[in-house]
Amino acid sequence: MKKLNKKEESAQKKDSVNHIFRLNDFFFNSLQEMYYAENAISVAFINIKHQISTTTLNEILQTHFDIHLKHKERLEKIFQLKNERINNKNCTAINALLSEGKDHLSLFNEDKPNWEIALILLTQKLAHYKIATYGGLAHLAINLKYHQAATFLAFSVQEEEEFIAHNLNGIIDTFLTSHIEGYKK
């Protein structure tokens, strides 16, 4: 009977190691997706920045662009901490959000107020996606005992949450209120 227990114990250890290996692989694949996402969001912003006519919105989105750059740097640090190669891995979710955003923006090419509202809503969607993903990755990092990586990821979550609270929530209210008031006249 002792041999059976040792075999079971050995199988459990093997399963545990395999589980950690798969979780680690999932973690780094997800980081690569977020690295891709940060790059894709940055490129999308650079491509439309010249179309933003409202100074306040331009300043707010420039701030968000600067936050993206910080997130990208943190991701690079995480890869370096673990001696992992930095790769972009296609992020289907970000591609879908950016594609949807592009479609929505094209609806309002000749209507700047609505175009800018659509841009704000796209920015909110992207920020919320990043909060959810970075938050989940921070928890994975803790489980994998990558505490410094977890800290970096938690900082990214906090920055996105603060950006929404201090910038996007107020400007969407301002835009919608002024836009609705314009229709009442």
Topology:
Blueprint: H1 2-48, H2 55-81, H3 92-107, H4 112-143, H5 147-184
Helix pairs in contact: 1-2, 1-4, 2-5, 3-4, 4-5
Give a description of the structure:
The chain has 185 residues and is mainly α. Helix content is 86%, strand content 0%. It has five helices and no strands. It has helices spanning 2-48, 55-81, 92-107, 112-143, 147-184. α1 packs antiparallel against α2 (55-81) and α1 (2-48) runs antiparallel to α4 (112-143). 25% of the residues are buried. The mean pLDDT is 89.
Distance between the first and last residues' Cα: 87 Å
Largest sheet: none
Number of helices: 5
Apparent shape: elongated
Mean pLDDT: 89
Rg, please?
A: 21 Å
Beta-strand fraction estimate: under 5%
Low-confidence stretches: none
Order of helices and strands: HHHHH
Structural class: mainly alpha
β-strand number = 0
Short summary:
Helices cover 86% and strands 0% of the residues.
Keyphrases for this structure?
mainly alpha, 185 residues
